[in-house]
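Quick log. Single chain, no ligands specified.
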Amino acid sequence: MLAKPKHENMSTSENQAAWLQKVNTPLEVGDAPLPTAGAREIVVKNAAVAINPLDCHMQDTGVFVQHWPTVFGCDVAGEVYEIGSSVDCFKKGDRVIGHCINLVTGRPSDGAYALYTVISANKAAILPDHISFTDGVVVPFAVEAATCALSVKEPGPCMPGVSTPALGLPYPTLQTPAPSADKTLVVYGASSSVGSMTTQIAAATGINVIAIAGAHNHDLVKRCGAAQVFDYKDSSVVESVVNAALTCQFEFVGIFDAISTPETYARNFSILEKLGGGHLACVHPPPTDNVPSNVKTGMIFAVNDIATPVFRDFVTLALHSGKLKCLPPPTIVGKGLEHVNEALKKSKAGVSATKLVVEL
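-> predicted structure:
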């Protein structure tokens, strides 16, 4: 049996988890205590988990790991197994999706890669019956990341020397179509998991979204609500985006870069320069050298209670109506925790317009 953190207050069970014993090693499936729900938490019996690039960073570098061994992972879908004493929005047996926050709490019980996981009740939502667990599991982490990219009002700490972005945009609405906010946002990498969700949430906020993605993914990005999509391989992509932003005559807010590489940063700054500055929200640390004074940079930190109203008031109803879509679609790697390692390898090799999922 694998070693278990002594600080966990849990009962004996037949739970299992995919444990990370040390940095840059494969996960090892072994016994784990059955978690119990705190007052404002639920325990989910997982039916599917999804892989995010963050998970790969945690495995390879140990970033955010507070205790060893650990269990990580951000996305779960399954049935409520237990509810905390102060939880009144869920009941045992409910079908739910949830965002796990092990990277903040450090508790293995809060990691996705297990048969049972603890979720904060304000980071979960009912999954409509017509949506499968493997489809629904692509949603929760991306929803919180998108909300953190769009709606934070004041910059806060993300990591040493790096602040979070503060675009201060409103929450999404269930109205169809959403009333126009008379604002334009560019989403770079709009076919990625967080990019496509940010496009969906921004469009549901009434934002005019101009997207950048590979040509073969344009239909997917348009389904997410982008008004216009341009090919990142086109040598004139910067000019095309700038012209589209100027033509619509809405207030230009800035750029959300879901790729965040030196190449995308160079294009971002060219766009921002031609449009008079704005926000640059990134998924990796933004550049610090030669940043124009009219550009405000930041890196999203995808754990923030600002997402609570979105989980509570928007996600379930929007999924039910089809306003919020389970995109990008899942690719199911296998069934069982032993397939998480394979899924992580595939994620590191690179995927396009899909999210890797493991059934349980």
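The chain has a mean pLDDT of 95.
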